[in-house]
Write a structure and sequence with these properties.
- By secondary structure, this protein is α+β, with helices and mostly antiparallel strands.
- The protein contains four helices and ten strands, in the order αβββαβββββαβαβ.
- 15% of the residues lie in helices and 37% in strands.
- It has a five-stranded mixed beta barrel. A three-stranded antiparallel β-sheet has the order 5-6-10, with no helix packed on it.
């Protein structure tokens, strides 16, 4: 995947291999620094003073308005290249089943994210949206995925102009594996 992402963006992209990334762990994203695409190492999750828990996701429906996220969404958008994501579904009783969601053609997926730069290193919050019909039987939310053809638009346009990217088309090339 690293070679495909490097070729897609024309930058060196060398993430740590992590087959099951969890909040507070390190992740490599692609963001803009001085108007140039670059790999950025960051930590997944923020802990604002007012929150009792770690925040790892922001909903696209409110990301522009919520004070915690508005500035990052306006000025520090990124994408998180990944091979997929996991959801757990209650299968009845105490049994939960883990499902992997990946690109049906084994291409990298690009999750939308926002960065919170600091002197201690950047922190990441990923963006979520309502699930497509295909994914909704597993979870009511899913990561906002940015199509490779829309990545330039994602970085360079005003946050108000991004509205068309904040909703998935019903048919995404997603494969689901248990």
């Amino acid at each position: 995947m690293a070679d495909r992402v490097s070729a897609q963006f024309g930058i060196p992209y060398n993430p740590q291999t992590n087959l099951d990334l969890r909040p507070t762990e390190q992740v490599t994203v692609v963001g803009l620094v001085n108007d140039q695409l670059t790999s950025i190492h960051c930590t997944w999750g923020i802990k604002p003073n007012w929150s009792k828990s770690l925040l790892i996701n922001a909903q696209v429906e409110t990301v522009r308005e919520k004070k915690t996220f508005a500035n990052a969404f306006a000025h520090h958008r990124c994408v998180v290249p990944c091979s997929g994501w996991y959801e757990w579904r209650d299968e009845g009783g105490k049994r939960k089943q883990k499902y992997l969601f990946s690109h049906a053609e084994e291409q990298p997926l690009y999750m939308a994210g926002i960065l919170f730069p600091s002197n201690d290193g950047a922190q990441l919050v990923t963006l979520t949206t309502a699930s497509t019909a295909q994914c909704s039987q597993y979870h009511n939310r899913m990561p906002l995925l940015i199509a490779p053809s829309d990545i330039d638009f994602w970085y360079k346009f005003d946050s108000i102009q991004l509205e068309p990217l904040l909703h998935h088309p019903e048919q995404l090339p997603i494969a689901i594996h248990s």
